[in-house]
Amino acid sequence: MKICQYNANQAGIVEGDQVYPLGDALWKAAILRERYTMVEVIEALIDDPKAMQIARDTRGIGSPVPLASVKLLVPIINPPSIWAAAMNYRAHQTEMVERVGARERAELAKDDLMAEFFLKPSSSLIGPGGTVILPKIAKHVDHECELCAVIGRPARRVSEAQALDHVFGYTTLWDFSIRDPWARQQNTRNIRKGCDTFTGLGPWIVTRDEIADPQDLHIAVYQNGTRVMTAHTADMICSLREHIRFLSDKLTLRTGDLISTGTPAGVSRLSDGDHLRGGIGGIGEMEFTVRAER
Asked: DSSP of 183-248, one letter per residue?
């Protein structure tokens, strides 16, 4: 299933070119409160067989509306945490060593590399069709398009073999980053990657059953019509299973937590007026406009 959030923060299921009102159906069945959140939708689908049956019976849950007529929103606007991996693709690692120097990090063991996970603020989230604002303080901002897992059942000290059992679904996360010289200092990631509009998320959440293997997905990004990023998730240094094992060994991953798995090679500088389009095969595409802060 493709589960979206649209219009007035309504939960829907995207099927073909239609959106079915999942949230309304779950509310009418007394499964959700009237002013529900997407985390509550996920919890209901995980814990209540009746809720999942309603979702599976998509065509029977109400009158659909054309996908083209709705405004898609960030699919989960209140994630408990947004965890983002650093330099997790082999080709991107080489790219960044050549651009800014980071040779010592290229030699890190997997767990040492995963120790560089950082948090992004939910205030930085924008949805499909959103506008990325280039801050006045920044002269160089890059785009990054990444596979992102949405946690379903809470995870604590889970093995790699069990890791994907705790994934509810997958979405696409765009991690926009300031690359100015001051941003090369230690401990600046939360700021240079946490500005308003610096986390694109969407276009929806694809449930885990529709993705056979998260390490077998293609990523493509176009900047002003030119293809600038072509990648495959098999190029990850640390797999999603390893990410979940590593994080859950130190802390509890909660329902709705996001784990973004790092960017491939092909990042490029953004300018006022740019247009971005791209996404991940099996999940979907998003578009953004880019504007300089006035």
From this structure: GGSTT-HHHHT-STT-EEEEEEEEEGGG-S-TTS-EEEEEETTEEEEEEEGGGBSS-HHHHHHHHH
Give yes or no for a contact between 72 and 24, defined as CB atoms under 8 angstroms apart. Answer: no
As a CATH number, domain 82-292 is 3.90.850.10
Residues in a beta bridge with 170: 149, 206
Residues 12-21: tens digit of each pLDDT = 999 999 999 9
Flag whether the pTM goes above 0.90.
yes
Neighbours of 30 (CB within 10 A): 8
Q: Is residue 89 within 8 Å of 164, Cβ to Cβ? A: no
CB 284 within 8 A of CB 196: no
Q: Per-residue pLDDT for 108 more than 90?
A: no
The partner residues of 177 in beta bridges, in order of sequence, read 142
Q: Where are the domains of the chain?
A: 2-69, 82-292
